[in-house]
Amino acid sequence: MSAINPADNPELWAFLELLEPGQALAGTVAAIRPFGVFVALDDGPVHPLYPGVGFIGIPELAWRRFEDASDVVEVGQRVVCEFLQFDTWNGEARLSLRAMEPDPFPVFADGVTAGQVIDGKVTKLVPFGVFVEVAEGIEGLVHLREFAGEPVESPEDRVQVGDRMKVVVTEADRVRRRVSLSQRQVPADLR
Asked: Which of 107, 91, 97, 120 is nearest to 180 (CA)?
């Protein structure tokens, strides 16, 4: 049994059943929640429970890392999204905002080689290392063991968010979409 009954909402069901995966849908951000964003679609009916017929899950908002959905969109903003699927349980159109933008990872992976030195900006400290933005929307991890100089127990001992850091790309894993970095392998005269 679905949460939204098709018999009680024939206009909604008729609209959603006509949508095709990959179709571009325009609308307005109606609400931002910790789990995603509701979109009032231009041609869509009013949803009986939610602020919009369209829904963008957090992973589908942007290719880049962000802390909160409001870092990417705001209520009232016009958006064009790709239709992913018809969620029959919630009676909504699952959407992707990031699908409307090119994926920056393949471009980065094609243009970088293992051993290449890159200047980046520290974006996040974690107990096991730091994330460094090495290109627009691309971050890599410098594990604590890959810090130059004396061993460190905490990344705060060496860097803070916003610091610039020279790193060597050790791997750009296309399958897992991960970039591994090392500060230790940067030649001393470039640090």
From this structure: 120
